[in-house]
Design a protein that fits this description.
Layout (H helix, E strand, L loop, with lengths): L1 E7 L8 E6 L2 E5 L18 H5 L3 E3 L5 H4 L2 H6 L5 E4 L1 H14 L2 H6 L7 E3 L5 E3 L4 E6 L7 E7 L2 E5 L20 E5 L9 H14 L4 E5 L4 H8 L5 E3 L3 H8 L9 H11 L1 E3 L9 E5 L8 H10 L5 E3 L8 H7 L3 E3 L8 H10 L5 E4 L3 H7 L6 E2 L7 E4 L3
Parallel strand pairs: 3-4, 4-5, 5-6, 10-11, 11-18, 12-15, 13-14, 13-15, 16-17, 18-19
Antiparallel strand pairs: 1-2, 1-20, 2-3, 7-8, 8-9, 9-10
Length: about 400
């Protein structure tokens, strides 16, 4: 029997975490935090005894809702193996510095020497369980995981983008259970339509506007959209250059185009006036990083519009400004829209499916399109795959 633990991200957005117990092994796939929550709800719902028994932790990518609980996990007694790609390892310390709680970061910092690195496409043999990996299309170094044990295969997509304009996504394999990125529910608007709308908005505000964005993933997607002159926070440059140094993660021809645009981008620092062109600052929610400074500056300016393009957790500056009508929002798809979800499910042989990173109501709307979708399970539940 294979037991799957839904430790975070089910019936909610954030603290994404999936446990798999089979073949005498216990692994955890991702350990994220939930922006906007506090106390125990900030972290995955897994008890200390189960944490101490884990053999391995595999991190799909370095966004806060997938890696932000790493130091907390170490503080609860985790001493298993840690697996990441080189890109994820390089980006995780900054994510942890913004979203990890200081008491855990100080006592249990991430030790790069303790991390076992793998390349997307490799298979990790844990003895009794193997984990196959593939490129996610979400960020440079981002992956999905396919766990095989006892003759069964469980696929956890993490965050995937089947129609990215920048990153490559490898097809998910056939499986007995698909844990799928359902962040957008049944959103029918295609990525190309959203990209066109964002480009038109930027063109209409080319004299100066703010585009808050995560440092990895969406920053490159926005750079591919930008129609002309633009600026970015100077601290973003090195990280973006590192992402572009992984050409196998990018669509053909994309790296050269983005390197050119990065070279032409103007640097902006917090002590300078807002530039007279589109400005990228990292952290899409305004809670951390340069965006925490740039968003209040833009909001106070007489004519410096703000465009938000991602998730808006309640209580974040981005959510507050949008609710007040001071910031506009157009989703830039960095997760699957409806057609992408259907395509992934069909190519996976239409298995039973769970949706992560999605509110219950949105899952209900998605169910008619994915007949195998279960909507009755939430964070804290378990599902067993029993022998036939």
């Amino acid at each position: 029997m294979i037991r799957v633990g839904l430790h975070g991200g089910f019936g909610e957005k954030g603290r994404t975490s999936v446990g798999i117990e089979a073949g005498g092994r216990r692994v955890l796939l991702d350990a994220g935090i939930k922006v906007g929550a506090s106390g125990r709800d900030y972290y995955p719902l897994i008890d200390d005894e189960a944490i101490r028994k884990l053999d391995a932790l595999l991190i799909s990518h370095a966004h806060e809702d997938h890696v932000g609980a790493l130091s907390w996990l170490l503080s609860r007694g985790f001493r298993g193996r840690i697996f990441m790609t080189a890109e994820t390892l390089a980006e995780s310390p900054e994510t942890l510095s913004h979203y990890g709680e200081r008491e855990y970061l100080d006592a249990f910092p991430l030790d790069p020497g303790a991390v076992e690195m793998f390349t997307p496409g490799e298979t990790i043999d844990l003895g009794g369980m193997t984990i196959t990996t593939g490129r996610s299309g979400h960020v440079a170094g981002g992956v999905w995981f396919a766990a095989e044990a006892e003759g069964r295969r469980i696929v956890y997509s993490a965050d995937v983008v089947p129609d990215s304009n920048v990153f490559v996504m490898d097809p998910l394999p056939r499986c007995d259970l698909l844990i799928l990125d359902a962040s957008y529910g049944a959103d029918p608007v295609s990525g190309s339509e959203r990209v066109s709308a964002i480009r038109q908005w930027i063109e209409a505000h080319a004299g100066g506007c703010l585009l808050p964005t995560p440092l990895s993933g969406r920053s490159l997607e926005l750079m591919a959209i930008l129609p002309g002159r633009f600026a970015m926070h100077a601290g973003m440059r090195a990280a973006l250059e590192a992402q572009l140094a992984a050409p196998d993660m990018l669509l053909p021809g994309t790296a050269a185009l983005l390197r050119q645009r990065l070279a032409q981008a103007e640097d902006w620092h917090e002590d300078e006036a807002l530039p007279s062109c589109p400005l990228l600052t990292n952290d899409g929610m305004g809670r951390a990083g340069p965006s925490a400074i740039a968003i209040p500056l833009a909001a106070a300016a007489e004519n410096y519009p703000i465009l938000l393009t991602g998730h808006l957790p309640e209580g974040t500056p981005a959510h507050t400004l949008h609710a007040q009508g001071r910031a506009e929002w157009i989703r830039l798809p960095t997760h699957p829209t409806l057609s992408g979800l259907i395509g992934i499910w069909e190519r996976s042989d239409k298995p039973p499916v769970l949706g992560h990173s999605c509110a219950p109501g949105a899952l209900d709307e998605l169910r008619p399109y994915l007949p195998g979708l279960r909507t009755d399970l939430v964070t804290g539940d378990f599902i067993d795959l029993k022998d036939d």
